[in-house]
Amino acid sequence: MLERYYSHGKLLISGEYFVLQGAKSLAVPTKLGQSLEFESNDSGKLRWQSFDYHGNLWFETELRLPDFEVIHVKNKIHLPFLLTLLKISGQLNSTFVERISGRVQNHVEFHLDWGLGSSSTLIHNIAQWAHIDSFCLGKKSTSGSLYDLAVAQFNSPIIYQIIGHQRISEIIEFNPPFLSFLFLIHLNRKQKTNSEIQKFNQIKVDKKDLNKISEITENIKECRDFKIFNELLHQHECLLSKILQTETIQSRLFSDFKGVIKSLGAWNGDFILASGATDTIEYFKRKGYTTILKFSDLIR
Length: 300
Description:
This protein has 300 residues and is an alpha+beta fold. Helix content is 34%, strand content 29%. It contains ten helices and twelve strands. The protein has helices spanning 79-92, 118-130, 134-141, 147-154, 193-200, 207-222, 226-244, 249-253, 280-286, 295-298; strands spanning 2-14, 25-40, 45-51, 57-64, 69-74, 102-108, 158-163, 166-171, 182-186, 259-263, 271-276, 292-294. Strands 1, 2, 3, 4, 5, 6, 7 and 8 form an eight-stranded mixed β-sheet that branches. The protein starts with a strand and ends with a helix.
């Protein structure tokens, strides 16, 4: 019997960093995601294969059950995280290990350096496979706000907020009339989210700044005016620049861009959101960037 699980990737449009300390954030699912297919057998082993978006095998391991003894591994740098997820899943559901003798094929639909959630979609897929709560698995295996698991779970744009130990997800529509003027550009580098989170956690953000980000997030959700939308993006960037004591990406690299640029996720890596005229694609091509996507082509 073949079991198949699928999770969409994600992008955080507002509230990056601030969401860790209670601000509202706006997150959206992407059209691209990750699948997990499991076919059982009676070998007493779990063979795991991961394929990239070109269909190339980039990670493989064979584990002897029930102790997850490593028989074989290719690209072993990724093994510890997988073992952590499998072992925690076994702790959360005692029947899980008993029924996973077989083969897993894992397929990622996006470039692994894009920061669209290769880890979070894997966590959500394994949680579905193990019949456990994905937030429990995520909390025990990663740091961060876990907004990406909420996006994978609801498969919809959401407003996400952490209040104490409670995670609140409000399903929304995000389809402003100016979508054709929004673009996503990859900066040709992958930012290490966990290290950025650790740095930010050392900063105590003033309550009024958290409230301001929540206000900006709510206004972005409701905004139908392109000029006001750009001003909201600019306010968000300036406030985070002040708190991080880091120059905005637009000031540093794209000061001549006739529009507004906002970082997405951890600053200085992964995607940026460019809000500008129809010649935006040509502008970034001239700058040497090759991964330039229309917002509407990537976001569900």
